[in-house]
Amino acid sequence: MRVAEKQLWCLATAIYFEARGESYRGQVAVAQVVLNRVKDHRYPDTICAVVFQNQHRRNACQFSFACDGIPEVVNDRKSWAQAEEIAKKATQGQLYLTEVGDATHYHATYVRPAWAPRMNKVTQIGLHVFYKFKNGWLFG
């Protein structure tokens, strides 16, 4: 799949700011959630639109870095290079975690989002817990 540079940048940005402190697998899992959302009809159909969805609503988006009101600055070049590599490989279908599967949500273990009890937990990797929709259940 050929992905525009801007879309790769958006995915790398999500990986970096959401998961740079996680293991490689944890970073791949975050990338996978973004790509799963792009494929899901309930969400926007581009990577950037998914990553920055609801960014104008403070603390009301899936990817907290996008709407927490804190300016984002890349200051760890090694972690950024890894995020870029994961973004490229994930969009090319070279990285896929079966335990994450078609998960469209995750949260850090230290938060309790209201939506979590209404979804199926699929796995935990590092400090992130991953979820997918329950059969037939749609967000309102």
Automatic annotation (TrEMBL):
It comes from the Bacteria. Gene3D superfamilies: Cell wall hydrolase SleB, domain 1 (1.10.10.2520). Residues 21-131 form the Cell wall hydrolase SleB domain. GO terms for molecular function: hydrolase activity. This is Cell wall hydrolase SleB domain-containing protein. It comes from Devosia geojensis.
